Amino acid sequence: MNINIEEFSKIYDKVNIIDIRKKEQYLDGHIPKSINIDPYELVNNPDKYLDIYKRYYIYCESGSGSLKLCQILSQKGYEVINLVGGFNSWIKWNFN
After folding, report:
1. Is 63 left (phi over 0), alpha (psi -120 to 50) or beta?
2. How confident is the model at residue 94 (pLDDT cuts 50, 70, 90)?
3. How far apart are CA 54 and CA 64, in angstroms?
4. Which of 6, 40, 45, 63 could form a disulfide with 86 if both were Cys (CB 3.0 to 4.6 A apart)?
């Protein structure tokens, strides 16, 4: 499942957000309230980070990596939603 930046901007402060970019990118700027988790860790140990009964919004830089990750996690039974356009869409939305 996907969500666009317009819809996400209405709910981002009330949801669980995961940033899967590199730690350096996260430290340079991220969506408020997001947590930074390595995508390989999420794939290999999802139960360490995710609650099967919660919904998570996941983003990367452009949205393509998080889309692939969401597909994998969804197949494992997790409710995950990809932010279309990733962090780039967040930056554009904040400067419009």
Report:
1. left
2. confident
3. 22
4. 63
Hey, what domains does the chain have and what are their CATH numbers? 2-94 (3.40.250.10)
Q: Which CA distances in Å does 22 have to 1, 10, 35?
A: 23, 26, 12
Pair 14, 1: CB distance under 8 Å: no
Give the count of alpha carbons within 13 A of 6, CB side only.
0
Q: What is the pTM of this model?
A: 0.94
What span, in angstroms and rounded, lies between the C-alpha atoms of 73 and 87? 20
